[in-house]
Design brief:
The protein has about 300 residues and is an alpha+beta fold. The chain has 2 domains: about 190 residues, no CATH class; about 90 residues, TolA/TonB C-terminal domain, CATH 3.30.2420. Helices cover about 50% and strands about 10% of the residues. Strand 3 and strand 4 form a beta hairpin.
């Protein structure tokens, strides 16, 4: 097991020691913490500190949503609009490793971005290839990683950026390292199985025939802009609220892509079902261009 995965094995113990008995036994879901104002800058500081503490408690307890959200917030630090945590790539790495161990593809891509930013191009390449291996196991997977010819795809451009930074590589050694990473993730997943969530599902996602977007930058158009949101879905299927979690090239890119998120909706709740639903929702410029007309871009 590599150092990156070995770090995950001790992160829970280290964090539990730091928090001690401060973590309650009954932790609210990630959506409840965000809905109460974790990512809202107008929430009083004391309340946000309390919610941030509970988010980390939830992450230590194995909640993959909490691990990925907290990892993103540590990765960006003050550059994130919410500025919940100070930038700390070691903490981000440990938390995102935990989410990746539970099969979260977006966490794997964030780890690739993190390692690339820190000058670890080979480590970034391993995570890109691991994410692709997981992606190809999906029933709706496409060989090109979901990218389209209408605009640069995020995965395609991430792979290009990693290749440019890495240079020539021994493919056979890389395959060995990727397979070792996959085996390590499988071992961690078996030791820490994902908790099944209860409650009503989201149903079918419905997209408009024509998206209306704010003006995007040349970089966002040419290098595959991407954003990830935590979304609150109302009983009627409309998006009640949404919060930016992560984005490429910068968090501001996610602000511009937000308009596309707000134009989508899910199936309404079935008779007898109640409550709000929550989902971590990724969106990229290539995904909204594929098969749809885009205005304002």
């Amino acid at each position: 097991m590599t150092r990156r995965l070995a770090a995950l094995a001790c992160v829970a113990l280290a964090t539990q020691v730091a928090f001690g008995a401060d973590c309650p036994a009954d932790l609210p879901p990630t959506g409840a913490l965000i809905g109460q104002g974790l990512l809202d800058t107008n929430t009083p500081d004391a309340k946000r500190q309390e919610l941030a503490h509970l988010l980390l408690c939830s992450a230590v307890a194995g909640n993959d949503n909490s691990m990925e959200v907290a990892g993103s917030l540590y990765r960006w630090g003050p550059r994130h609009p919410a500025h919940v945590f100070e930038e700390d790539h070691d903490k981000a790495r440990d938390l995102l490793n935990g989410a990746a161990a539970q099969g979260r593809l977006s966490a794997m891509l964030k780890l690739a971005e993190l390692e690339l930013a820190d000058g670890h191009a080979r480590e970034a390449m391993i995570w890109v290839q691991v994410e692709r291996a997981y992606y190809l196991q999906r029933a709706n997977a496409t060989k090109d990683g979901g990218d389209t010819v209408a605009g640069a795809g995020y995965f395609t451009m991430l792979l290009k950026r990693v290749n440019d930074a890495l240079g020539p590589v021994d493919d056979q050694k890389l395959i060995v390292d990727v397979n070792a990473r996959l085996a390590g993730l499988e071992k961690l997943a078996a030791a820490h199985p994902r908790t099944r969530r209860e409650g009503p599902g989201l149903g079918q996602l419905h997209r408009p025939a024509r998206f209306q977007l704010a003006a995007i930058t040349n970089t966002e158009r040419d290098e595959g802009s991407y954003a990830q949101y935590f979304v609150e879905v109302a009983p009627n299927g409309d998006i009640a609220r949404r919060w930016l979690i992560d984005a490429y090239p910068e968090p501001s890119s996610g602000v511009r892509l937000a308009r596309a998120v707000e134009q989508m909706h899910w199936d309404p709740l079935k008779p007898g079902e109640t409550g709000m639903r929550y989902v971590i929702f990724p969106i990229s410029m290539s995904s909204i261009r594929h098969g749809y007309k885009v205005e304002g871009s």
